Amino acid sequence: MGNFVVDSLGLSDVLKMDKRQLLYQILNFGMIVSTALMIWKGLIVMTNSESPIVVVLSGSMEPAFYRGDLLFLTNHRDEPIRVGDI
């Protein structure tokens, strides 16, 4: 039963690694995650918005934006928003 759990989770390859390979894999994964977080935080600072990238989830914004569209938001605005800006 225990071998089935290890094999079904794909942990058999991890258990066969030596310590150096395992450490390398953990550090590599950590670098990928930290790079993604740095890019996200950089976008937050550059756009001055807590959510710089959003996805349109419903059709309520049609015909300007359709479901599934990616929107890049920013709060850098010196002039007031007028009708027709979007």
From TrEMBL:
Where is the major localization of this protein? endoplasmic reticulum
* Membrane topology classification: Single-pass type II membrane protein
CDD domains for the chain: S26_SPase_I
> In this entry, which stretches build a coiled coil?
none
Example GO molecular function: serine-type endopeptidase activity
Q: What InterPro entries has UniProt attached to this entry?
A: Pept_S26A_signal_pept_1_Ser-AS, Peptidase_S26, Peptidase_S26B
Localization recorded for this chain is:
Endoplasmic reticulum membrane
Alphabetized, the UniProt keywords read: Hydrolase, Membrane, Transmembrane, Transmembrane helix
Q: Which residues cross the membrane?
A: 22-40
- One GO term (biological process): signal peptide processing
Q: Which GO terms describe its cellular component?
A: signal peptidase complex
Report the protein's function: Catalytic component of the signal peptidase complex (SPC) which catalyzes the cleavage of N-terminal signal sequences from nascent proteins as they are translocated into the lumen of the endoplasmic reticulum. Specifically cleaves N-terminal signal peptides that contain a hydrophobic alpha-helix (h-region) shorter than 18-20 amino acids.
Q: What name is this protein filed under? A: Signal peptidase complex catalytic subunit SEC11
Taxonomic source organism: Oppiella nova
Show the taxonomic lineage.
Eukaryota, Metazoa, Ecdysozoa, Arthropoda, Chelicerata
